[in-house]
Amino acid sequence: MTRTSVSALFAAAVIAGAGTAHAGPIAPDEGPPRPVVPGVHLVDQKQAALENMLNELNLGWANGGAAGTAIGAAIGLGVGCLSMFPGSLAGCMIGLPTGAVTGALIGIANGNPKAQKAIEDYVNTP
């Protein structure tokens, strides 16, 4: 196989594999309530909070995170390159990732307002 055909196969596999992952909802625990012990956290509660947080972040990403990342990266690249004109390469290298992260956070928050609450719930779950 040539290098071009291997590259094309690899690109096709990456594109096809990116859309096939799917996480289903967690099954409710059908058992008696467990006693609360101070200083000990229940793994099931933390896992449920983690899965809820990841689902909410995924919804936010699908509803606006990718667009926010692209817009933020473009703005950060432009501002970084223009604001540090004599050393514009350094400004571009700082502005691009800063704008991309900021745009992703804003895009996810606007795409799904429940994402921030899910993060807070996960962090505060013992």
Can you tell me about this structure?
It is a single chain. The chain is mainly alpha-helical and 126 residues long. Helix content is 73%, strand content 0%. The protein contains four helices and no strands. The protein has helices at residues 3-18, 43-83, 88-111, 114-124. Helix 2 (43-83) crosses helix 3 and helix 2 (43-83) packs across helix 4 (114-124).
Q: Identify low-pLDDT runs.
A: none
Oligomer type: single chain
Question: How far from one another are the termini?
Answer: 53 Å
The arrangement of helices and strands along the chain is HHHH
| Secondary-structure class | mainly alpha
What is the residue-mean pLDDT, rounded to a whole number?
80
Number of helices: 4
Strand content: under 5%
Can you give me a brief rundown of this structure?
The chain is mainly alpha-helical.
Helix/strand layout:
Elements: H1 3-18, H2 43-83, H3 88-111, H4 114-124
Helix pairs in contact: 2-3, 2-4
For the structure shown, list the relevant keywords:
126 residues
